[in-house]
Amino acid sequence: xxxxxxxxxxxxxxxxxxxxxxxxxxxxxxxxxxxxxxxxxxxxxxxxxxxxxxxxxxxxxxxxxxxxxxxxxxxxxxxxxxxxxxxxxxxxxxxxxxxxxxxxxxxxxxxxxxxxxxxxxxxxxxxxxxxxxxxxxxxxxxxxxxxxxxxxxxxxx
Length: 157
What we know:
It comes from Clostridium frigoriphilum. The protein is 22% helix and 36% strand.
């Protein structure tokens, strides 16, 4: 480890997918993005387990990645600035608080989420968007088809 307070993580998790076709068995091995720290967004703290910040891998890590992406407003935090147009996070707050027609907001939310979620190689498709308004909150439900299986996700904006 270099002179850094952040530990190096060399975690590679292999996931083997098997599809059963009519003639042969096709097996594909995917190397995951590794591990992420578990963060409890309701409490606002990292989850501590056995005296250390809990690490998540596989489908749990992907769920955390999705949650973090959706909660990170693009271009708001300097730590995510890379100098390229394709920054980390999503841009939805100005859109949701605009006076645009609801069908336009619905289409843009779907486009923005799909475009940014598909940047993760573990996500294969994003579909089944359902948007509903609850007072001052826009609730977005969608399905993520990943290398680990299907995830049902909900975002409250």
